[in-house]
Amino acid sequence: MMGAYVIAGLVMLISFYVQWRLKKKFEEYSQVGLSNGMSGKEIAETMLRESGIYDVRVLSVEGRLTDHYNPKDKTVNLSADVFHGRSVAAAAVASHECGHAVQHATAYKWLQFRSQMVPFLSIASQYMQWVILAGIFLINTTAIPLAIGVALFAATTLFSFITLPVEYDASNRALAWIQKNRIVNEKEYIMSADALKWAARTYLIAAIGSLATLLYYVSLLMGRRD
User: Which of the residues 27, 45, 62, 97 is marked catalytic?
Assistant: First the structure.
């Protein structure tokens, strides 16, 4: 039991550190003006157009770091700072989200697999913690509820790991495009790569944390208590 708490604590501390670094990096690179003067919206629209994608809209959404691509309605949603921004950070984020749009348009297998899991997980997540909690209370009576809960949590863990190649690939597509099309100069490219690197690490830490939690639940199910 103590070992599980130590692992959970370490994952939490690393997660806080990565989130802090990500925030600092984006604050720093948001202050660096893009040499070509393009806004995030203009970069996104250009990348979509040059990728042969004409049915995806670029929209502005509220919040910070709320940027995402929605495959359901084919929209690249950019936070106001990115949508209107003309910074290195805006270029990195806008091109990354368009990387997801390119994945969708080219039937990237990991994105397809991830999208197929969303309907099931959106329902499972509403009940998963309650099932696991009931399973822990009833572990000495029956293992069925906990087994169901562990199976549901395993699906969410799988989802978090499938997300990794999706995010890394989107960043790679973004960086390749902004470099090839000279959206950024050499110095700005290095900054963009650094920003996206820290963004990707948040997904990596989340996946590791999910796996650690899953192993803890499995240990309870198997009756191995520290």
Answer: 97
